[in-house]
Amino acid sequence: MKQIDVQALHDRREAGEKFVLLDVRENDEVEYCKIAGSLHIPMNQVPTRVQELNPQDTIVVYCHKGGRSMQVARFLDAKGFQEVFNLHGGISEWSQRIDPSVPMY
Questions:
Q1: 10-residue block means of pLDDT along the chain (105 residues)?
Q2: Domain that holds residue 76
Q3: Is residue 37 part of a domain?
Q4: In whole angstroms, what is the distance from residue 72 CA to residue 24 CA?
Q5: What is the pLDDT of residue 1?
Q6: Of 26, 44, 46, 56, which is the most buried if we count CB atoms within 10 A?
Q7: Do residues 38 and 67 touch, judged by C-beta distance below 8 A?
Q8: For residue 105, is it within any domain?
C-alpha cells in the first residue's frame, strides 16, 4: 500500500491530476468537515459498496488521521485496485498544513 502526504496530494490536485478522493469517515464527521470533491463511503460500508469504485482509477483514501483509511487502502489493494494511496495524517493534517478553513476536531 502506498502513502501520500497532504502536500503531494495538494500539488497533484493543483496540477489537474484526476483521482478519486475517498472519505471513509462516519457521517457525523463528514457533516462537520470534509475535503472538497471527495466521495464519501463510510469504512464499514466499503465492502458492500466497492462496486461504486473503478479498479482502474487512482484512489486516495482518507479519514481523520490515517488509520481507518490505511485499512481501507489495504482492502482495495487486496481486491485488485491498481493505484491506491493512503493519505498520511488524514484530514487533520490537511487542515493544519493545506487548508485551515477545514475545521479541526
A1: 96 97 98 97 98 98 98 98 97 97 94
A2: 2-97
A3: yes
A4: 8
A5: 81
A6: 46
A7: no
A8: no
